[in-house]
Amino acid sequence: MKTILCIGAHPDDNELCVGGTAAQWAVAGNRVHFVSVTNGDRGHFASEYIANPQLLAERRLGEAIAAAGVIGATYQTLGIRDGEVYVDKAATEAMVRCIRTCGEPGKGPDLVIFNRPQDYHRDHRYTSQLVTDASYMLTVPTLCPEIPHLLRMPVFAYWHDSFKDMVPFRPDVIVPIDAVMDTKTRMVAEHESQVFEWLPYNHAAGGEVSVPAGKEERIAWLKAALQARDGARRADVAAARPSAEIASACVEAFQLCEYGTRPSLADLQNLFPSTAI
Ligand SMILES: [Zn+2]
User: Fold this and answer.
1) How remote is the CA of residue 13 from the centroid of ligand 1, in Å?
2) Residue 202: CATH number of its domain
3) I need a surface site. Which of 151, 225, 256, 276 has the fewest CB within 10 A?
């Protein structure tokens, strides 16, 4: 059994970016733990949440626990306010503690998944920086001495993004997810304040928001949206690795990070679902 730690800035980032892979890790008997650095308390337009962001934070905590629960994963938030991730001493040490306490003492997680440092959202950029900054310090016993330091470094990997201007994403591992799209959809659907409320509103940019009202219609609508998103990801990944044989319309993909343990091919085949290329 492996311990996989997925770290996003917001409560729904992990399900959207690695939900299909996480479902396969969980089914294979691995421990999956989702972390969001922020509590997501700014992701809405309703006046009640503008007046009382804590209400939204509480709602999103329930949603994230339910979403992780779909595959038997666990969830925690570091509790930083949405839009306020800064790379400072407190946040860096919170990240060190978080990673060290995931998995067995001294051993930590086998694999840490997060986003690359180039990203449109400031919280995403600085979450990536926090994980990167924490990585080496995991093994340093004099930092956060109350939590046992790690005696080995995890493997670190970035999830896919399509940003190109700095350095394009390199798909080292491609995971087919067609067979688990229903599970991924059920996970993402638990974030109803986001996928059925805030994100359609935000994307409409003042235009008309049209989300189906019925529960089944909503799930079908969301699944189609995720298939479009993860299908576009397949096209992006296929363009970056034209020799890859990808027998799946939807994929998730990962780029190995230069920091932490550098896995061998055998390690990779052990860490990622057996269907991965
Ligand atoms: Zn996010």
Assistant:
1) 5
2) 3.40.50.10320
3) 151
Residue 36 phi/psi, 5° resolution? Answer: -120, 135
Which tokens sit at 239? 């363009």
**What's the pLDDT tens digit per position in 147-202?**
999 999 999 999 999 999 989 999 999 999 999 999 999 999 999 999 999 999 99
**Cα 195 to middle of ligand 1, angstroms:** 12
In total, how many domains does the chain have? 1
The pocket of ion ligand 1, defined by CB under 5 A, consists of 9-10, 13
Question: Within a domain: residue 276?
Answer: no
Give strand ranges (E) for the chain: 3-8, 31-38, 74-80, 111-114, 155-159, 173-176, 251-260
